[in-house]
Q: What sequence folds into this?
């Protein structure tokens, strides 16, 4: 494991099993968290999304949930290194059943960077942590959306990112869980390339109406676009 500074006094602990990429930065920026929010990050891994939220006016508290004890231990190590210690509650739990004192119906925001591939799609890694992170072996898209709906209050927001080829699956699962898709943004490497990621926000109990935002372009020429740099502001190692 190694510690990396996100800003002064704020650290993330990364390892070969539990690390992060650009999508975590993009989802954090897209979710528009507020200081008054009570939030939860499902499948948190090393806790990068809750930790990134600490960089500017963080939510008043965040539950960071993962089924893997090693991931939660890694997040706790990062929290122990932070000064001041963020109001993040590491929770080792299966999102399909949640945990005994889960704040059901009480949260303003739930985020998730879910497995991008269906259980039987593509090559399965030998490493259990990689299989859980990349394929729906520990939970399905329906499970993720159902868990988010249980945790959110009425008109609470659920934000996630995924690959464009899974968009129909994601939108269907969200609507079936009572999380109406309300905001969508495509992410492209450059103006000439097709989208490689999408970001979507669903609102619990909302009426149908989807707003499609302008695409986010990550690169222009040899460097990052101004908008991408502002969202990530952590260097280009994760692009």
A:
């Amino acid at each position: 494991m190694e510690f990396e500074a996100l800003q002064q006094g704020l650290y993330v602990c990364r390892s070969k099993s539990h690390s992060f990429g650009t999508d975590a930065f993009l989802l954090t920026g897209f979710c528009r968290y507020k200081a008054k929010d009570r939030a939860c990050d499902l499948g948190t891994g090393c806790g990068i999304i809750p930790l990134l939220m600490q960089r500017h006016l963080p939510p008043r508290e965040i539950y960071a949930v993962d089924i893997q004890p090693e991931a939660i231990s890694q997040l706790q190590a990062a929290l122990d290194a932070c000064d001041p210690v963020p109001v993040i509650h590491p929770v080792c739990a299966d999102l399909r059943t949640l945990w005994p004192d889960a704040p059901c119906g009480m949260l303003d925001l739930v985020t998730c960077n879910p497995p991008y591939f269906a259980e039987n799609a593509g090559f399965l890694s030998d490493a259990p942590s990689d299989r859980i992170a990349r394929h729906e072996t520990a939970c399905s898209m329906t499970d993720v959306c159902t868990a988010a709906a249980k945790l959110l209050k009425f008109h609470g927001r659920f934000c996630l990112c995924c690959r464009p080829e899974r968009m129909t699956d994601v939108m269907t699962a969200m609507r079936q869980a009572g999380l109406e898709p309300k905001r969508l943004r495509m992410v492209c490497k450059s103006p000439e390339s097709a989208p490689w990621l999408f970001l979507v926000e669903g609102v619990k109990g909302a009426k149908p109406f989807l707003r499609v935002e302008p695409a986010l372009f990550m690169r222009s020429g040899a460097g990052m676009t101004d908008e991408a740099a502002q969202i990530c502001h952590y260097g280009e190692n994760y692009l």
Summary: The chain is about 25% helix and 30% strand. The helical segments are 22-30, 48-52, 69-81, 128-134, 141-151, 167-176, 226-232. Confidence is low (pLDDT under 50) at residues 129-135, 234-239.
